[in-house]
Specification:
The protein is α/β, with parallel strands linked by helices. It is built from twelve helices and eleven strands. The protein folds into two domains: 214 residues, no CATH class; 123 residues, no CATH class. Strands 1-9-8-7-6-2-3 form a seven-stranded mixed sheet, with helices on both faces. Strands 5-4-11-10 form a four-stranded antiparallel sheet, with no helix packed on it. A hairpin with a 4-residue loop joins strand 10 and strand 11. The protein starts with 6 loop residues before the first strand and ends in a 6-residue tail after the last helix.
């Protein structure tokens, strides 16, 4: 960080004022508390949120790649069909409170959906959405983003934020981020004694560096800090990894429930279905899971009839197929959601420890 006016600060007590100013021109999403858990929902006056609670049940993936999304609507008119494609989303929106791992998750999706042929529905949301990340002040024991080279202390996005006691520093990283902060430059703070987002000074930046250093020390002490990608990625032999006998042992208690895929910030599989509303036919896409027995079902049946094969498919894609196709990048960001949510305590960390290098023992 450098003192050049691009780093702003805001009082934590003024965040509602910040969200209110943004909401005049676009929708604002952030982690909202409901029934003791946090998930992304629209900001509105009085909504229950904690700017330091960023461990959401699901990532912000659904704001760019919705769980259910209309593609085409058509109806019969006499002897002909009237077909109307659903226009891609064009509403401007901001998503606040995204962790570094989830920002990296967007990059995983970008490689899939923004490579020819470009997914116009996804692209429209990426074009109209602005990401404000926050360095998570309280990493959990299930976090292992560092395994995939993610620096939690530099969360990225269009604007990245750091909490330093009673203040939050905001650093614009893209033109879109600069425009966002500039859009509220004329708003005053709650006390009426200055701007909502004054420029940060040397003292503020030093405080941010101290917060980052303390965070690095915490990350070093997490249970999965030593987990490595050794034995996976582009350099791993595909057939050797595919044929490892440990897959059956690892998957023995898998229920095939798909929970891991639905909380994952990088899973991108979907199915296309149709529904008769009584007035027209709606063709839509919905998230799907490679853990389901009917996933990619064909006329002759399922290509992976046994659960261990479906289990293997999920983790081979994360750790081998995706890296092979996208210059070594992994399709996991170490967010830890699958570790917390799997009812059978199965997860990618166990797979990496079992099949990976000695450092994972």
């Amino acid at each position: 960080m450098a003192v050049n006016g691009s780093v702003k600060k805001i009082r934590m007590s003024d965040l509602d004022r910040f969200f209110s100013a943004l909401s005049l021109t676009q929708k604002v999403y952030l982690p909202v508390e409901k029934a003791g858990q946090y998930d992304y929902a629209p900001w509105e006056p009085g909504v229950s949120y904690d700017p330091e609670e960023l461990h959401t049940v699901k990532s912000a993936k659904g704001l760019f790649f919705p769980q259910s999304e209309d593609l085409i609507k058509y109806r019969r008119e006499g002897l002909s069909l009237a077909i109307g494609p659903v226009a891609p989303e064009d509403e401007e929106f901001v998503v606040f409170g995204v962790r570094a791992c989830d920002v990296k998750g967007f990059e995983v999706l970008d490689r899939v959906f923004l490579t020819d042929p470009v997914d116009t529905y996804y692209k429209a949301r990426r074009d109209h959405g602005t990401v404000i990340s926050v360095m998570c002040p309280k990493p959990e024991e299930t976090c292992f983003c560092g395994t995939f080279g993610i620096e939690a202390e530099a969360p990225g996005g269009d604007v990245q934020c750091f909490i330093t006691g009673e203040d939050m520093l905001m650093e614009a990283l893209t033109e879109k981020g600069e425009a966002l902060l500039e859009s509220v430059s004329g708003v005053g703070n709650t006390n009426g004694d200055g701007a909502l987002l004054p420029a940060a000074d040397e003292t503020d930046l030093k405080a941010a560096e101290e917060v980052k250093e303390a965070h690095r020390e915490i990350m070093k002490k997490l249970p999965l800090a030593g987990l490595t990608t050794e034995g996976f990625g582009k350099d791993a032999d595909l057939l050797t990894l595919f044929d490892r006998p440990e897959w059956k042992e690892l998957s023995a208690t898998c229920l095939g429930c798909g929970t891991c895929t639905f909380v994952c910030p990088t899973c991108q599989c979907y199915d296309i279905r149709e529904y008769d509303t009584g007035r027209d036919i709606r063709r839509f896409r919905v998230w799907d899971s490679c853990m389901y027995s009917d996933f990619t079902m064909m006329a002759h049946g399922s290509p992976r009839p046994e659960q261990f094969q479906r289990f293997r498919q999920r983790f081979m894609h994360k750790l081998k197929y995706y890296p092979d196709n996208y210059e070594g990048a992994f399709s996991c960001v170490g967010c830890g959601r699958c570790l917390k949510k799997c009812p059978s305590s199965l997860n990618i960390a166990k797979v990496m420890k079992k099949l990976g290098g000695a450092d994972n023992d």
